[in-house]
Amino acid sequence: MKTDETDRKLLTLLRENARRPVADLARALGLARTTVQARIERLENTGVIEGYTLRASAASRPPLQATVLISIEPRSGPEVLARLRGLSGVEVVHTTSGRFDLLAQVVAQTTTELDDTIDRIGEARGVKSSESLIHLATKLDRTT
Question: What is the rounded CA–CA span in Å between residue 60 and residue 95?
Fold first, then answer.
């Protein structure tokens, strides 16, 4: 579905606060409340908006985060992904271009737990090599 500039502004406002009343959204966009409500329903019905979720504060997230860059053997992707799905500390996995094949976002409560998860990733059958980057401080996060 094609979105216009007004849809993009509406989506930005909803990302900031998905519980914001439609009347407030309408005022911010300079539109009628019914128009904004219709746009939200259209965005939901066409799948642009898949749902609404809880945005947890940094205090509720595990204190340690890492990015693990993974090189895998040819045709071992499904097996490696199955192993990564089985590791509770692995939150997100992306395929990548370049020197590494996969990028895994890992979280942990302790350094021992983080070390164990990273070790288990490296030991997975089909993994050629991995490189870990421990997150120290967040300077910019537009996902929250």
Answer: 28
